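The records we work with from here on pair a chain with its fold. Taken together, the tokens spell out the fold as the letters spell out the chain. To see the layout at work, look at the sequence and tokens printed below.
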Amino acid sequence: MTPCAVVGLGAVGSRVAHQLTSSGVPVVVHDPFVLADIDGAPDAQRVFAIDDLSSDRVAAAVLCGPAPHGAIARDLINRGVNVISTTDDPDDVHAMLSLEDECRRLNRSLVVGAAASPGMSGLLAAELSRRVDIVDEIHVAFHGTGGPACARQHHRALGGDALGWHDGEWIERPGGSGRELLWFPEPIGGKDCYRAELADPIVLQRAFASTQRISARVSATRRDRLTARLPMMSPPHAEGGLGGLRVEIRGSKNGQRVTEVAGIAERTAIVAAAVAASVADQVIGRGATAPCGVVVLGDGQLDDEALVTAVIQRGVSVFEYIGSGS
């Protein structure tokens, strides 16, 4: 089997390398700042320059480092490599979505936002959407962070302009506004969540184009909101604690209004790595039949149902809210 490259060996990337190795996929890694062997993937080959990655050496590359990924993704695609990006930065997502024509011309796949949020949020939305006839609304909420880059993005998001999809139009609202008390799977429970500059609405609107309303929020404390427009007061931890994801869809079935809710309570880096590794495994496994162009999870170009199953098999539990269908 042709190897898969993992670029960036932080909290997410090191787990992706381990999970791919455990699945029998040979791994090539690149991170100039991490020189030690990777736990669970001691035999991974190492390359010291991105230029060493090309289609004659790797079938795909998973980008797990800090944003931006756009320039690296374009470079790899032009060298014949399929790309899976874990970015959660809205500007970075926009940049990669603009590579659609280039990907199609080169017959390559670019999967954008293959992490927890976005990523798992799209997979859960697709899973829930199969239970209704029409999806009108999708609302995502996220709690916690992964590695340091994720923590910095969370901090910036609360200080930015929150993008939402409302009755067929994009709207912007101040980050840190729109408080809602939302419930995540235990032991997280209820958290105050606020609008933030997140990438989920961008990718979800692409995947579910007929949906009328899409929003995304993150949990935050009073201190988070007050300091969002200032530099971070202390360096982020190497990895955050328990994270949570909540996906709610509203729609109709047999003429009746219904709401479906699913969620996850797990370390963010574990969820992101499980999603990225599962996507890479599927893209590599499909070979020449892999989708051509830009892909977002939930749009049906990959087997979303199989991806949810694969993520669960990698140890991530998905919870459904009892009675949410009424």
